[in-house]
Write a structure and sequence with these properties.
The protein has four helices and four strands; from the N terminus they run αβαβαββα. With 110 residues, it is α+β, with helices and mostly antiparallel strands. α2 links the parallel β1 and β2.
C-alpha cells in the first residue's frame, strides 16, 4: 500500500488511489472544493479512523479528478457531497452521503 500524505485527511492523487492494494476495508470519500459538509465530517472521520485502524481512507475531489470518479461510480458525479463508498477486498459493498455518524461509516464497510 502506498502511504498516505501527511495527516489523515489529506487528499490523495489519482495515482495513489489507483495503486492502493485494496485487500482490506477501505472508505473513499468523494467531495468537491465547496463542500461545507466535508469540513464538518473531518473530525468524525478522524475519530472513526482512530477507532478503526484496520480501515483505510482516501479522499477524491470530483471537480479536480473526474476520471477516477468515472472509474469507481458508474453514473455522473454524486450530487450530494461528501459521498462515501465502502470497499471490502476491492469490492464496493456500501455507500452513504452527507453528514453521517461513525456508525453509518461502519455500516458501509461491514
Amino acid at each position: 500500500m502506498i502511504p498516505k500524505k501527511e495527516g489523515l485527511l489529506e487528499q490523495n492523487s489519482i495515482f495513489e488511489v489507483y495503486n492502493k492494494n485494496m485487500t482490506q476495508k477501505e472508505i473513499i470519500e468523494f467531495s468537491n472544493n465547496k463542500s461545507k459538509a466535508s469540513v464538518i465530517m473531518e473530525p468524525i472521520i478522524k475519530e472513526f479512523l482512530y477507532e478503526n485502524p484496520d480501515v483505510s481512507y482516501s479522499k477524491v475531489n470530483y471537480d479536480e479528478d473526474p476520471e477516477i470518479v468515472k472509474s469507481l461510480i458508474s453514473s455522473q458525479a454524486p450530487t450530494v457531497s461528501p459521498f462515501f463508498i465502502g470497499f471490502y477486498n476491492g469490492h464496493a459493498i456500501g455507500y452513504t452521503a452527507g453528514i453521517v455518524s461513525k456508525e453509518e461509516l461502519k455500516k458501509i464497510i461491514s
